[in-house]
Write a structure and sequence with these properties.
The chain has 16 helices and 14 strands. It is of the alpha/beta class and 410 residues long. It has a nine-stranded mixed β-sheet, sandwiched between helices. Helix 4 links the parallel strand 3 and strand 4. Helix 4 crosses helix 6. The longest helix has 17 residues. It is globular. The model has no long low-confidence stretch (mean pLDDT 92). This is Heme chaperone HemW. It is found in: Cytoplasm. Belongs to the anaerobic coproporphyrinogen-III oxidase family. HemW subfamily. Probably acts as a heme chaperone, transferring heme to an unknown acceptor. Binds one molecule of heme per monomer, possibly covalently. Binds 1 [4Fe-4S] cluster. The cluster is coordinated with 3 cysteines and an exchangeable S-adenosyl-L-methionine.
Length: 410
């Protein structure tokens, strides 16, 4: 969750949505994202809306405390119930992200999930995920989560090499994420993800291969691999600007991606989104697929974004301001926008092209269809899906996905 918020029109104090937002809602899945904005330390590359204890000291008082944070999120879940009214949909996915959600007590995460279950109900096959820092969980913590209804966990591994973790300001030790996978399996988690980052300054091809080897050896059923993006305003950006560490170029990123595809495929993982691989359809992250397919989700927490029926809104950023709004009986929404049909068409192309299933060609305008034909000729789109009316990226197309999508959206 990037820290910068867009502009937008005001959100009503009661959070009410335009009447059209729930039209046809029964046909769309509903998910919840719960943002936990706390971190023990700030990673040098991170631009998310997160806060350390030092950063919060004196800025939010008791309202910004981790100790009562779960109560505040429960208040927003109850607000969501009021705003969505008699919406009959059980929640299909829940994703707890951050920040470091596992800085909260495991019982707090279970209690927030319980509020969603009480207010909305959970689908029988609901996917319930939390992100976790490897150093902030142990077998007992994971067992509490599993007993409380969580069935998927995502560990931030990033790298198996100490010098790479040091550049990223990650505090866990090499080997700990792999041990966490075993602990999660022992606790009964069927679905486990490891997050990796490639392209860190000072990382070599051998370092990256070692990280993939370690991740695969741990036995997750899902791996996410992201190119490092150096965001302005971060500590890492300042270090690069001062010449302390080098910037990795796009060609290196492309080479690392090809290494990931080769090694993950050989180990039985299939890509289903440009940066995500799973061993089966059941291992795919359904919550992220809600985002990529434009479904409905409510984001609770400071800076969290939501989308229901073409209405997108976002909460105030600071934990103290967020808690203060809810304590006063007001929506914590900072702004919102109403998406036009054209906005939603463009977003479908932007997001669905990244998926293995691709995007229907009939979503494209004339210029976009011409661009799709050029991409096919250039080997960026696969021929068989194209002949069946879909634009699906080839491996080369995945390397150039951003450029392809820019052409397709006219």
């Amino acid at each position: 969750m990037p820290s910068a918020l867009p502009d937008g029109e005001p959100v009503p104090d009661d959070g009410a949505l335009p009447a059209h937002a729930l039209t046809g809602a029964a046909e769309r899945p509903l998910g919840f994202y719960l943002h936990v904005p706390y971190c023990a330390t700030r990673c040098g590359y991170c631009d998310f809306n997160t806060y350390t204890a030092t950063e919060l000291r004196g800025t939010g008082g008791v309202l910004a405390s981790r100790d009562n944070y779960a109560d505040t999120v429960v208040d927003e879940i109850r607000l969501a119930r009021k705003v969505l009214g008699d919406d009959p949909r059980p929640v299909r996915t829940v994703f707890v992200g951050g920040g470091t959600p596992t800085l909260l007590a495991a019982d707090d995460l279970v209690r927030m999930l319980g509020a969603i279950r009480d207010e909305f109900g959970l689908a029988d096959d609901a996917e319930v995920t939390t992100e976790a820092n490897p150093e902030s969980v142990d077998p007992a913590y994971l067992a509490t989560l599993r007993a409380g209804g969580f069935n998927r966990v995502s560990f931030g591994m990033q790298s198996a090499r100490q010098h790479v973790l040091r550049i990223l300001d990650r505090t866990h030790t090499p080997g700990r994420p792999e041990a966490c996978v075993a602990e999660a399996r022992a606790a009964g988690f069927e679905h486990v993800n490891l997050d990796l980052i490639y392209g860190t300054p000072g990382e070599s091809d051998d370092d990256w291969r070692a990280s993939l080897d370690a991740a695969l050896g741990a036995g997750p059923d899902h791996v996410s691999a992201y190119a490092l993006i150096v965001e302005e305003g971060t500590q890492l950006a300042r270090r690069i600007r001062r010449g302390e560490v080098p910037m990795t170029d796009d060609d290196v990123h492309a080479d690392r991606y090809l290494i990931a595809e080769e090694m993950l495929s050989a180990a039985g993982f299939d890509w289903y989104e440009v940066s995500n691989w799973a061993t089966s359809d059941a291992g795919r992250c359904l919550h992220n697929e809600l985002y990529w397919r434009g479904a409905d989700w409510w984001g609770a927490g400071p800076g969290a974004h939501s989308h229901v029926g073409g209405v997108r809104w976002w909460n105030v950023k600071h934990p103290g301001a967020y808690a203060g709004a809810l304590a006063a009986g007001r929506s914590p929404g900072a702004g919102r926008e109403l998406l036009s049909e054209e906005d939603r068409r463009v977003e479908r192309i932007l997001l669905e092209l990244r998926l293995r299933e691709g995007v229907p060609l009939d979503l494209l305008r004339e210029a976009g269809r011409a661009a799709a034909h050029r991409a096919l000729t250039d080997g960026l789109l696969a021929k068989e899906p194209y002949d069946e009316g879909r634009a699906v990226l080839t491996l080369r197309g995945r390397l150039l996905a951003d450029a392809v999508v820019r052409d397709l959206v006219d």
